[in-house]
Design goal:
- The chain is mainly beta.
- 0% of the residues lie in helices and 53% in strands.
- Strands 5, 7, 8, 10, 15, 16, 17 and 19 form an 8-stranded antiparallel β-sheet that branches. It has a 7-stranded antiparallel β-sheet with strand order 6-9-18-11-12-13-14, with no helix packed on it. Strands 2-1-3-4 form a 4-stranded antiparallel β-sheet, with no helix packed on it.
- A hairpin with a 3-residue loop joins strand 15 and strand 16.
- The radius of gyration is 23 Å and the shape is elongated.
- The mean pLDDT is 92.
């Protein structure tokens, strides 16, 4: 019969009426649009459709240089809760990068700091680029560090992307399996003591590339679906009970590129 009413509903909470309506999705994500029509006889029918809004390539999702000093520390809560909070602080580094996050935990301590980042849906050709600079002040005698750029859970490796761990004199790129176990790949890179190194992780739809100071140290396939985005964790520090950490972390950045 004749349609007498057009009612629109959007997952943002917006509504509208009429044959054509307009709405704005102000942030990237997947939104549902539902249209319900009614006939003169009172019959109703509905149809819905998902609309994906992408973020422009070149956009920056995270930029943490600790320029505000100690106040920046509140953005990096401690895990696990029983660790010594005094072992991680934002400190001034003279003649270097100004303020930086210093994690100085002894062996058998396990001290990690984390921050959350919301990744948008990725369209074909886009990739996520994570970058951080690290200066280790101790790399021997049960000292190392870990860099986990994209992890859905602090305690579960399922859905996590490959990350970097330095321990026992070897730099490993750790590839989490679909079952949450670790597959560690040793690399030839060894960080210098009291020297800043820039670590970059490039995650595309099916590849992962890890670079240090613009030099490739690891490249492989990766199977985590990033196309829908979501909220992930960035974690640094140490993640083993027998490995301590004494390193400065600075200039975190997460960008969308292609």
């Amino acid at each position: 019969g004749q349609i007498v009413a057009y009612d629109w509903a959007f997952s943002t909470g917006e509504t509208g009426a009429g044959v054509e309506v307009e709405t704005t999705f102000s942030t990237p994500g997947v939104y549902t649009v539902e249209l319900t029509v009614q006939s003169a006889g009172g019959d109703r029918a509905s149809i819905s459709h998902d609309v994906t809004v992408y973020l422009r390539s070149g956009s920056e999702l995270l930029n943490e240089d600790f320029s505000v000093g100690e106040a920046a520390g509140i953005n990096w809560p401690l895990d696990p809760t029983w660790a010594n909070a005094r072992e991680g602080a934002v400190e001034y580094v003279s003649a270097a990068n100004n303020y930086a996050l210093h994690i100085a935990s002894g062996s058998e301590a396990w001290h990690r700091r984390m921050a959350s980042v919301e990744l948008p849906p990725l369209r074909d050709g886009q990739r996520i680029v994570f970058q951080v600079t690290v200066m280790a002040t101790r790399t021997r005698d049960a000292y190392g560090f870990v860099i986990c750029p994209i992890r859905p859970s602090k305690d579960d490796l399922i859905g996590a992307l490959p990350f970097l761990r330095y321990a026992d004199g070897t730099t490993w790129v750790v590839d989490p399996s679909e079952y949450g176990t670790e597959i560690a790949h040793p690399t030839a890179f060894v960080p210098g003591v009291y020297r800043w190194h820039r670590y970059r992780f490039l995650y595309s739809e099916d590849r992962v590339v890890v670079e240090v100071d613009d030099q490739l140290i690891y490249e492989a396939q990766q199977g985590v679906d990033l196309s829908h985005g979501g909220v992930y964790l960035v974690m640094v520090g140490d993640d083993q009970h027998d490995i301590g950490c004494n390193a400065f972390f600075d200039d975190f950045a997460v960008r969308i590129e292609e």
